[in-house]
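Practice problem 4.
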């Protein structure tokens, strides 16, 4: 079979998926990070413009949550169907995910655009910062469908064994964004609105590339009219498996909203801008370990579907070891160069000083994030839905949100908002990883069982 993940060294299969995915996600990250870098260095208004972008974060994360629900929900099912040789089912999963991404994006756009003003004030906007947030968001939202399709469908490209094509999906749009950003922001003197226009155009190009791939000759599975008819049983399976990723982003949305509102109360608009910078730095440093775990999922799912259980065990071990080593190194870099890192995003001296201090607090114990990513990805790839959902909720909703509200009121002030993250990394990461080892990893046979039954890893029979 073409692109057979059950052959060759497991670590090579993972890296073959992860490295192109890393570049693709790095390029995708440039969509937003480059906007923030340009905006943060705008003369006179850079710090307040960054605050406006920070206020828009929860809504953009809300969009990403639904992308995960239908994109990441369909991809593991798709990989398992491929590994089991069920090509018709795999193609139907692709079609259902495409239909769900498209339909939901239209509804999300209408809701977010209509209620953006009260929502932004709910998130902690002041009259001054609202003007910048609204200028960006009212344009950015027009790219909702483009963003969800390009990101949601990219997993299906990678899961077929075409990671370079998946990388190009993001590269084309991001390269365009890099070129268009300075043109619209500075040459056309459109400021924050220009950044949003450049992003929407770039997302449209990425979406067109991704969709066209599934109507072309290279793909192993096509988007067909017959597969777009709603199959509610399959939709239930997709959403159940995607619920973990949805909750991850959904709780991120909630955390961002709680953080911006609390920082506005205990620090003011400047601290909201600092959190915008910290979120940007976190996205950058999370990227390699996210790519590693994202590249591991189709390999794990495929081998599980093919009953190659020893290879599944090897994939989990490799994912954990490399992830821990990387996050330890990343933590050391942040501790060594906080001022330089923050200065990339702003030239405001006060924001650099406050941001450097906050960065050191926020990234403490960053290595425990690798444990969270490994456990979460293993649960998702092997359809352990309830456990994946629980640990998504545990770290953010059960630990971070209460601490974000309590610590500032216990005498820590604005620092309490930044302190909530490392506490959640340690508690949530350890709990997720240890549970994965005890309830999933130990149940996998140590040897491949070509003619054996699939072991019961999830709550329902697989």
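Answer key:
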């Amino acid at each position: 079979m073409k692109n057979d993940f059950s052959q060759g060294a497991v670590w090579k299969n993972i890296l073959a998926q992860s490295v192109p995915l890393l570049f693709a996600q790095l390029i995708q990250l440039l969509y937003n990070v480059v906007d923030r870098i340009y905006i943060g260095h705008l003369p006179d208004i850079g710090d307040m413009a960054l605050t406006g972008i920070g206020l828009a974060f929860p809504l953009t994360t809300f969009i990403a949550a639904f992308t995960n629900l239908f994109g990441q929900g369909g991809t593991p099912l798709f990989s398992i169907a491929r590994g089991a040789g069920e090509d018709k089912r795999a193609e139907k999963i692709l079609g259902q995910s495409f239909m769900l991404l498209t339909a939901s994006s239209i509804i999300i756009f209408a809701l977010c655009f209509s209620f953006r003003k009260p929502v932004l004030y709910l998130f902690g906007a002041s009259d001054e910062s609202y003007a910048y947030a609204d200028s960006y968001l009212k344009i950015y939202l027009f790219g909702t469908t483009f963003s969800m399709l390009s990101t949601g469908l990219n997993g299906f490209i990678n899961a077929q064994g075409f990671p370079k094509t998946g990388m190009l999906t993001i590269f084309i749009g991001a390269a365009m964004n890099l070129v268009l950003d300075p043109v619209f922001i500075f040459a056309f003197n459109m400021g924050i609105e220009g950044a949003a226009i450049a992003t929407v155009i770039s997302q449209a190009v990425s979406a067109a590339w991704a969709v066209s791939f599934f109507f072309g000759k290279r793909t192993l599975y096509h988007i067909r009219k017959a597969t777009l008819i709603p199959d509610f049983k399959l939709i239930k399976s997709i959403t159940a498996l995607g619920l973990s990723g949805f909750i991850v982003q959904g709780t991120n949305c909630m955390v961002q909203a709680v953080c911006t509102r609390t920082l506005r109360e205990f620090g003011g608009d400047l601290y909201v801008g600092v959190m915008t910078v910290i979120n940007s730095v976190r996205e950058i440093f999370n990227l390699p370990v996210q790519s590693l775990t994202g590249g591991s999922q189709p390999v794990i799912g495929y081998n599980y579907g093919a009953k190659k259980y020893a290879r599944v065990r090897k994939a989990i071990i490799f994912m954990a070891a490399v992830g821990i080593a990387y996050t330890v190194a990343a933590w050391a870099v942040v501790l060594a160069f906080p001022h330089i890192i923050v200065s990339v995003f702003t030239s405001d001296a006060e924001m650099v000083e406050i941001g450097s201090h906050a960065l050191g607090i926020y990234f403490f114990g960053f290595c425990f994030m690798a444990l969270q990513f490994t456990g979460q990805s293993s649960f998702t790839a092997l359809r352990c839905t309830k456990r994946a959902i629980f640990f998504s909720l545990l770290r953010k909703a059960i630990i971070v949100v209460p601490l974000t509200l309590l610590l500032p009121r216990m005498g820590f002030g604005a620092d309490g908002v930044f302190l909530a993250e490392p506490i959640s990394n340690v508690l949530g990461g350890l709990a997720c990883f240890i549970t994965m080892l005890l309830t999933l990893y130990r149940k996998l046979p140590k040897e491949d069982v070509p003619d054996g039954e699939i072991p019961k890893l999830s709550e329902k029979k697989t």
